[in-house]
Design goal:
This protein is an alpha+beta fold. The chain is built from 7 helices and 19 strands.
Length: 347
């Protein structure tokens, strides 16, 4: 157990590798009650929210969701999140645990500065627990409860006298779902999913497997690969920034960066040959020249090689480039790879 975002969280239950392989081959169950749940409502809620986030929430039909980012005035990433449209005038934001207070303070400040009426904003994080099930058998596991929504969708269910919101996104590179439930029922739901998953070989999974899974899938971690000092453009997340929708907070800074030209890019790297696993903050070199730094790294249980994410000078960001990782004063060979690093079939 370790401290994480103000919570005590399990790093693993059995082992990181066992849990990682369970998700890749069968299913894994994650307690994600640490995530935050924010609600925006009202007749002007959609328009106001659209001016705070990079993606275009106006494109969402009821029951749909999208990945998006909350930026500061310099275009840096405060948080990356999923927003779901749960009603014609209602939106649910699933935010990272470590930034709940920062997100709420930022959005409340933006609301005070807004002249728009007809918007209500609520932090309901303490009222909800959540359980995620990820893996190729996740849909089968859920079948006794009902039919899962489609990818990037959310649907309301009734279970044991309790209302669940079931979403289908994930942070592992596998199919799966997230169940958001009133906090008092979260332990019971956790036990239910473990019981349903027993015949499939599902395992409870901790933070360690969550990190190795998302790293193989090249999904960025806020606070490591994403930060207030770097923009989503540098992080390779241009697809989630909609410049056609009109004004949004941080837009001017992003347009300025595009006009000047990007100087760095978040890339995936894979070690070649025998080497220690790479870690965050290890320097990256091209010959004698320092060209960047890792922001995440570790040993891939599926690829059986060291992998990582890091920012490199833009001229070194093309797949196939040869680099070296400085591991405590020793250099080890690596290459820039196309994302994601892991693709099915299962390992």
């Amino acid at each position: 157990m370790i401290g994480f975002g103000g919570w005590e969280m399990p790093v693993f239950y059995s082992s990181i590798v066992q849990e990682h392989l369970a998700v890749r081959q069968r299913a894994g169950v994650f307690d994600i009650s640490h995530m935050g749940e924010l609600i925006v409502e009202g007749p002007a809620g959609g328009a106001w929210l659209n001016a705070q986030l990079t993606n275009n929430v106006q494109k969402l039909a009821v029951g749909e969701g999208q990945y998006t980012l909350l930026l500061n005035e310099r275009g840096g990433v405060i948080d990356d999140l999923i927003v779901y449209r749960t009603a014609p005038e209602g939106y649910l934001l699933i935010v990272n645990a470590a930034t709940i207070e920062q997100d709420v303070a930022h959005l409340e400040q933006r609301m005070r500065l807004s002249t728009q009426s007809g918007v209500q904003f609520h932090d309901t994080s303490d009222a909800y627990g959540a359980v995620a099930v990820q893996g190729p058998r996740a849909a089968e596991l859920f079948r006794p409860i009902g039919e899962l929504p489609g990818r990037n969708q959310i649907r309301r269910f009734e279970w044991a006298g309790t209302t669940l919101w079931i979403a289908r996104t994930g942070y592992t590179g596998e199919d799966g779902f997230e169940a958001f439930v009133p906090a008092h029922a979260s332990a019971e739901l956790w036990r239910e999913f473990l019981a349903l998953g027993e015949k499939y070989g599902a395992l409870p999974c901790g933070l360690g497997a969550r990190d190795t899974l998302r790293l193989e899938a090249c999904l960025p971690l806020n606070g490591a690969d994403l930060s207030p000092q770097r923009t989503p453009l540098a992080a390779g997340l241009r697809a989630f920034v909609d410049f056609t929708k009109g004004e949004f907070h941080g837009r001017g800074a992003l347009e300025g960066e595009l006009a000047r030209g990007l100087t760095e890019r978040l890339v995936a790297i894979k070690m070649t040959g025998k080497s220690p696993p790479p870690r965050a903050h290890y320097p990256l070199f091209a010959g004698a020249q320092a060209v960047g730094e890792l922001t995440s790294g570790g040993l891939s249980p599926c690829l059986q090689v060291g992998i990582g994410l890091g920012y490199v000078a833009i001229e070194r960001a093309k797949a196939g480039q040869s680099l070296e990782v400085d591991v405590r004063g020793r250099r080890f060979a690596a290459t820039v790879e196309k994302k994601p690093l892991y693709r099915r079939p299962p390992c």
